[in-house]
Amino acid sequence: MKETRRLIYVPILHAQDDAGRAASNVSENERTRKNKESAGADRTAVEHMWQGIAAKIAELNLPWEKTRIYQDGTPVCGNEAALAERLAERGSPNYSFLIKLMKKGAVLEGTEDMELLIREYDLLNKLLMKKAVSDRESVNSEYQEKSRKLLVLRDQFIAERISATLQEGEFPIVFMGVMHRLDKLLEKEFQVSYIIYRLPFRSIGTIYNA
Amino acid sequence: MAVSDRSSSGKQTTDRKILIIEDDPDLLGLMRHVMEHEGYLVSGAVNGAEGIVRNTQENPDLIVLDLHMPEMDGIETLRIIRGSDDKVLVVILTGYASPDTIRDAADLNVSEYLSKPFENQELVSVIGSVFKL
Predict the structure, then answer these.
(1) How many domains does chain A have?
(2) Which residues numbered 64-123 in A keep a CB inside 8 Å of some CB on B?
(3) Per-residue pLDDT for A23 more than 70?
(4) Over pLDDT 70: what percentage of chain B?
(5) Is B127 left (phi over 0), alpha (psi -120 to 50) or beta?
(6) How many independent structural domains does chain B possess?
């Protein structure tokens, strides 16, 4: 009988800095919507979340040279490590943490289908470019519906990607935005252990988490 | 922050009211002590049903809500509370992280989700940041 493999699943909240180009294109628009103090509190909450996650993962004593990282928003492109470095340099606490794990020996695996990801960014961009709150509300319901359908396809791709790339003897660790339902697909194949520290919904909401 | 007075600890007290819904009386007592020390006005409930009643009667600014309680769990409790109160801030506490409950909590407009065990100062920090925003 085949032994069920263990998988570490970390539900996370993405901040604007994690969303890459789609969010950076509209960051100025967003900045006008928030005052500096509020934005600072948001960043502190996100950094605190990642510090807590780092502490919990450190307790696991994973063999990093045998660990494969799967991160939502990371396309299968052959340049995953360079992409992670670029996002970390731009201030993403998520990717900064991944870089630390990679320096310990973990491998970052391309996780998402590029075409599906571009469709998600296009949807998100359309929503974030709306300045007026009333415009945003009407676009938001359209975004939620389309994004939800897209997420099903993205999760299917990610689950297949994990099965296809994980090598014998390797440990998978998955960082996934809270709105994904990938866990449902993975539970069929893996014994899933969840790690969570803190999720500051009020600070950053769920908008970047599809 | 609305400031009204100074507590015996020397900290400024506030007009802000916190309701803690937690079935473990020891943890409830500890959190109550910690939050009172920070100057908040604190009340407690040991189950979801009592929490729903207290929320209606006391109209707190923030609820600290344990997810895993017998009879009525935290999500069910919050669903009922949200039926009549979409304003109260909510900090969820849980010892078990399940994406299902996280998604349920997000749908019910919670402010924070904090896993157990936590340090007293972490809870203080989380509640402080929720009020600050």
Answers:
(1) 1
(2) none
(3) no
(4) 89
(5) alpha
(6) 1
